[in-house]
């Protein structure tokens, strides 16, 4: 049994992918998404000790050893090896001159022993003991299954019409046979009736194919609507943490996999069913016409199928590597467009272009490699198909000499034989396409099989007052990470104005995101109005809060659209939010005012203006609690004072993560954080006398202002 390849989706999960492949090989069928959901992915990835613990928890005893490359042949395969001091791979087989590896980043490949030696980091992890392997049938993802079931009616109709269309094709060979074998009789009646029949047949064939094309188009749009819709809907309901370690370009590529899957899967399912049906029909017809020519045809078909399967296997391996490179290209282009200001200001255009060019060159090299193999293995079927009629006519002519066939029958057999090769080639091509679609589906399943964000309970908190309680809260980003927050307890009363301060990395932003329900709770409790978070409907709760994070992301659209974000508010509330966020001057400076178009990410306005729009967007719903992470870092002191004074007047609980402490004395309560813990709380004057960490922060802040 071979290792089943599992591709890493995040930049730090090569170790987890390797562990998944070993569990899948030795114990049970399992996908990486299951282990990712359970253990998470630390920012720096996993070490060998952590990987051993995961294996042990999945009934695999393992041992990590340092060993030289010359002893690798004595280690039982498959095992995990450390490569280039930064990457984990599976070694599937070791021979004298070649190492067979399964790279979670790029798939199966072979490495020469000398090349492996240059990159090998002298560490391996191998399995010493394992239990009985459980047989488990992998279930089809419910979103994929429901998408196919939704279109089953259109699918069956298309299959039926396609079957009729292809059946009509059998009329042509037998008509040719009839013309040739009856040509000497010169019957006028036969010619007229045959002409009328042919005209009716051509019209029927045209009409059937017209209907088929229209239904097929409807079928394709239906699956686009269902599968792509479910993918986007599922993506929007994934937890915030899912997006932290994933590149934008990679996610976009995964979403675009829908169109490849639709194009390949639907077309190929139809092709496979039709080709299988007509494969049997054509064999029966051919054998009824002549057994010798049929056996010759089948021997030719065996060569054709073998070459197609070899080509499919090669293409699949190249495609896995190619998709990685194409994803990287998309990511480079995405980063280039998003960060064009930085590129221009640092004069790094050539550096970025060189990165793209190097990656694109790899993509071209893979295309050439694929073309080189296809020029051999795809050319074999093409050559056979081209010269097949000549072979049939040669043997058919010999049979006609012995009166075993008429010339008309030879021509008809040749025509049907050519039709027979078409479904055979189609079936071989379906195999190739299904191997490719499997690669795309694996990419898509990373989204569809990631568990949705826990939606909470049924309590809607319609009259939420803004009270927040944290009880012995602890949080870490993954199973083996250190706790980012440790044993946090605090009480925030309705309408209180709270500041959270601390040095960089102290856990302020993480704490704010937990209070804003963006991160889950690992230990302890978060309560809103004394109701535990897990009992509250998150969707409904988020209608009562406003959030402003450090990244002030705006969308391509008008200022109005960026404030409303699809919500319906009266004009006076829009104007009030603009006033509170001190946006009047910006809006009045544009001829179109609030209807001025903002470019993607707000590139045509300043950072401070982006912050103001983000604040207006957060407060327009009159939230009962407002969570703000460095909301005024891009603003001057005057604008900051105006906006924060306006926000302080709102009948809302306000929680602000602050580095700048110019307005710190106006907060009702300040929480001071250090190394994930609260080391002080109180008002400004109290902390100056009682908390050394706060004294240091305040002194350093005042020194930087001076």
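-> sequence recovered:
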């Amino acid at each position: 049994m071979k290792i089943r390849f599992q591709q890493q989706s995040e930049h730090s999960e090569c170790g987890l992918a390797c562990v998944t492949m070993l569990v899948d090989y030795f114990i049970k069928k399992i996908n990486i998404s299951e282990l990712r959901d359970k253990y998470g992915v630390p920012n720096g990835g996993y070490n060998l000790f952590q990987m051993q613990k995961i294996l042990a928890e999945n009934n695999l005893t393992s041992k990590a050893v340092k060993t030289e490359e010359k002893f690798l042949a004595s280690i039982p395969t498959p095992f995990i090896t450390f490569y280039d001091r930064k990457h984990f791979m599976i070694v599937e087989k070791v021979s004298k001159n070649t190492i067979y590896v399964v790279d979670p980043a790029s798939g199966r490949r072979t490495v020469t022993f000398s090349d492996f030696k240059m990159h090998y980091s002298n560490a391996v992890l191998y399995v010493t003991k394992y239990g009985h392997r459980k047989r488990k049938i992998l279930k089809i993802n419910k979103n994929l299954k429901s998408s196919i079931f939704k279109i089953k009616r259109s699918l069956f109709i298309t299959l039926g019409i396609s079957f009729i269309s292809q059946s009509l094709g059998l009329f042509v060979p037998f008509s040719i046979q009839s013309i040739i074998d009856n040509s000497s009789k010169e019957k006028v009646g036969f010619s007229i009736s045959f002409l009328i029949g042919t005209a009716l047949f051509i019209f029927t064939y045209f009409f059937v194919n017209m209907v088929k094309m229209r239904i097929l188009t409807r079928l394709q749009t239906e699956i686009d609507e269902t599968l792509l819709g479910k993918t986007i809907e599922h993506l929007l309901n994934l937890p915030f943490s899912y997006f932290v370690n994933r590149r934008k370009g990679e996610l976009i590529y995964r979403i675009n996999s829908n169109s490849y899957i639709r194009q390949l899967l639907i077309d190929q399912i139809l092709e496979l069913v039709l080709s299988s049906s007509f494969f049997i029909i054509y064999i029966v017809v051919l054998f009824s016409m002549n057994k010798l020519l049929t056996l010759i045809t089948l021997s030719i078909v065996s060569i054709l199928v073998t070459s197609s399967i070899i080509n499919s296997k090669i293409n699949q391996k190249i495609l896995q590597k190619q998709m990685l490179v194409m994803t990287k290209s998309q990511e480079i282009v995405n980063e280039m467009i998003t960060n064009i200001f930085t590129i221009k200001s640092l004069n790094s255009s050539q550096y970025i272009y060189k990165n793209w060019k190097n990656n694109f060159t790899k993509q071209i090299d893979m295309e050439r490699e694929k073309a080189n193999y296809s020029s051999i293995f795809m050319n074999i079927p093409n050559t056979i198909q081209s010269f097949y009629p000549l072979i049939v006519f040669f043997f058919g002519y010999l049979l006609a000499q012995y009166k075993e066939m008429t010339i008309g029958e030879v021509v008809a057999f040749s025509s049907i034989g050519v039709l027979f090769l078409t479904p055979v080639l189609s079936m071989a091509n379906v195999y190739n396409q299904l191997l490719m679609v499997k690669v795309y589906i694996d990419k898509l399943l990373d989204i569809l099989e990631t568990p949705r964000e826990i939606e909470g309970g049924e309590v809607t908190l319609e009259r939420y007052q803004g009270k927040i309680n944290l009880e012995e809260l602890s949080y870490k980003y993954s199973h083996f990470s250190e706790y980012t927050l440790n044993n946090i307890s605090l009480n925030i009363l309705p309408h209180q104005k709270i500041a959270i301060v601390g040095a960089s990395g102290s856990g302020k932003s993480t704490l704010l995101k937990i209070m804003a329900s963006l991160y889950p709770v690992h230990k302890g409790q978060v309560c809103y109005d004394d109701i535990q978070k897990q009992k509250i409907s998150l969707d409904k709760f988020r209608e009562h809060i406003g959030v402003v994070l450090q990244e002030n992301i705006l969308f391509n659209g008008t200022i109005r659209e960026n404030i409303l974000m699809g919500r319906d508010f009266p004009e006076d509330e829009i104007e009030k939010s603009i006033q509170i966020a001190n946006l009047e001057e910006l809006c009045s400076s544009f001829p179109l005012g609030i209807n001025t178009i903002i470019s993607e990410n707000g590139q045509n306005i300043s950072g401070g203006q982006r912050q103001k729009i983000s604040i207006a967007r957060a407060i327009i719903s009159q939230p009962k609690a407002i969570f703000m992470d460095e909301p005024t870092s891009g603003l001057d002191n005057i604008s900051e004072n105006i906006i924060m004074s306006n926000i302080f007047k709102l009948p809302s609980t306000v929680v602000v993560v602050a580095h700048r402490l110019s307005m710190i004395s106006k907060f009702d309560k300040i929480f001071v954080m250090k190394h994930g813990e609260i080391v002080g709380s109180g008002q400004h004057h109290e902390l100056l006398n009682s908390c050394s960490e706060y004294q240091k922060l305040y002194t350093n802040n005042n020194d930087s202002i001076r």
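The mean pLDDT is 81.
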